[in-house]
Amino acid sequence: MKQFFTALAANLVTIAVCVVGFILIGVGLIASAGARAPVEVRQGSVLIVDLDRPLSDQPARLEAKSLFDDALQPGGMALPLRAATIGIRAAASDDRISALLIRGNVASDGTRSGFAALKELRAAVDSFRVSKKPVHAYLVTPDTRSYYVASAASTITLDPFGTLMLPGLAAEPVFLTGLFEKYGIGMQVSRVGRFKAAVEPFTRRDMSSENRVQTQAYLNDLWSEVKSAIARSRGIDTVALQTLVDTQGLLLPADAEAAKLIDRRAYFDVVLDELQRTATGGTNSGTDKTSARDSARSSDLDLLLDRPALPQITLEQYAPLAMAKERLYSASQVVAVVYAEGDIVDGEGGDGTIGGASLSRELRKLRRNAKVKAVVLRVNSPGGSAIASEQIQRELALIKQQKPVVVSMGSLAASGGYWISTAASRVFAEPNTITGSIGVFALVPNIQTLANRQGITFDTVKTGRYADLFTIARPRTDAELAVLQRGTDAVYDAFLQRVADARGLALDSVRAIAEGRVWSGVRAQQLGLVDSLGSLPSAIKSAASLAKITGDYDVQEFPRLKSPTERLTELLEDKPAPVAARHTAADMAEAAAGAMGGNSAAARLGRSFVRELEVLLRYNDPRGVYARMPYILGIH
Predict the structure, then answer these.
(1) Dist CA 167 CA 398 (whole Å)
(2) Which has the closest alpha carbon to 230: 216, 240, 220, 219?
(3) Of 415, 425, 542, 563, which is the active-site residue?
(4) DSSP run (H or E) holding 434
(5) Residue 227 falls in the annotated catalytic set
């Protein structure tokens, strides 16, 4: 006992010393860092768009006020999509920006850099090109996603030792049923909808025929948009492009040039020489200066550091400047843009999830804010908890009674993501948005076999026949499954009614296009599930029009992001972070993927495997009923 308390005391002293040391180091950093110089734009600057940075539907990040804030701001965070598009469009009319340079490959991530988000980014590049300023794309091994964006450039250069990877689109879900069976984990389900395939990774070893049909259909729609955009920009025929995809898939530089998919084969120094000439030949419009420390601080600029005379700024640095110029802080009228990105979960949620309680609280504040004349909900979600979805939908419906609610669908607005969209006055989607999936399911796991193999057994005493309905100690009986199915059916009926009321459709018509089936944005419009095809800016303009706003109005984004210093303060105050904000399985998957080569085949497999497991961890609906997409959407 004495040894125990001695060891405990020693550990406590060590912890105390570490904490005090950490605080002292932090105070020292803050004191020494001070305020960082604002980022400015040198004359003739090249705006760098790094496609390796994933896009995200979230408010623009707060500008770091000090080097300490900078140090706490993760360098690999996603770039807010609206900020990125505003930045590129602003640069088109900025005399200080001489050219645009697109670099990198887009990592496959269906919810962050989905094709709808990439379409909006590509449209911004198109608008920059209209300004007659050069748009260069320098690529080494571009995949379909990165080439889709880069094909809008005026000049596309492929490294002589590179490859244009353009094999088309594929979806490859991971099935864990065999693993569960091997370790003695049972999985029972109740669901409504022939196409509701969210349970398949845990109950099947391959895709059902219904799931295969719907997946092929929306992949065809997505590919049609990608193919048409590329062909239009490159001045080639879509049939010829499809022939190249089917006969070659991976195009060597000479073949890509012969097919007019690129303009030339050259090394990066050739592109730098041209950018240098463009920058030095630009028109002087002022006396703007840039701190050398700020222009070289970002790792994104390491690509160009061998040309210190070449003025340069990343989109990540430039976008906040453009956003600040667009804000009308004195405006008495506001259109609020609320971001709903990630899995919908019960409770507070956190990074990468939409908390039913936290988002509802944010919506209540906007409803009571007299300056807010309209609300635009940007949805990028595969769905999740049915109760949380209904909670959010209710708050949006209350807002709609007082002011317009417009939904802008991002890359994903399916199942629960569509459920919360049913409160809107008007719904916008991109042609390659993935939506629909109007269906629900319940998953009921049990570990009886696994436990028994380890010598673990269970026994029960109860006061009601269904008191242990949600136990994981044994499989459910037929009677218990019937109880669960009744609950699932009731939620599905409510989902159908929400859609019918929102879209002005007969219930039978909704039932025919529901069944859990996933649709592309273009097909959803044809079916009456969305009103218009358009981007987030289109939705914002529509909201202002519906609100009959006259004169100037400000666009504000919610929920407000906390600064790095605020997050550190909460950590030191020992405030518990939301579950989803802590290190998750996805974080571990990304780390493992990095160790295996980032975007290699092995890395993608590992990432998909762990993320499917994480989905199970995020299933926290009190009733155990979920409205969610078929699986982690990995289109590559």
Answers:
(1) 47
(2) 240
(3) 415
(4) strand 434-436
(5) no
Tell me the torsion sign for CA atoms 39, 45, 51, 57: positive
**Quick one: pLDDT at residue 97?**
96
Among candidate residues 119, 133, 196, 403, the one labeled active-site is: 196
Tokens of 367: 């409803």
| 371 is annotated as an active-site residue | no
Are 376 and 386 spatial neighbours (Cβ–Cβ below 8 Å)? no
Dihedral of alpha carbons 425, 193, 355, 583, sign: negative
Tell me the residue type at 418: Y
From residue 393, give the alpha-carbon distance in Å to each of 347, 380, 580. Answer: 15, 15, 22
Could you give the 3-state DSSP secondary structure of residue 436? strand
Cβ count within 10 A of residue 213 = 13
Tokens of 487: 């609950």
Residue pointed to by tokens 């998953």? 443
Q: According to the model, what pLDDT value does residue 75 have?
A: 47
Half-sphere exposure of 5 (CA within 13 A, CB side): 2
**Residue spans of the chain under pLDDT 70:** 1-38, 61-76, 105-112, 282-308, 562-624, 629-636
Distance of CA 405 to the CA centre of its chain: 22
| Burial readout 49-76 (b: 16 or more C-beta within 10 A, e: otherwise) | bbbebbbbbbbbbbbbbbbbbbebeeee
What's the rounded Cα separation, in Å, for the pair 280 and 264?
23
How far is 236 from 294, CA to CA, in rounded Å?
Answer: 42
Distance between alpha carbon 264 and the CA centroid of its chain, in Å? Answer: 33
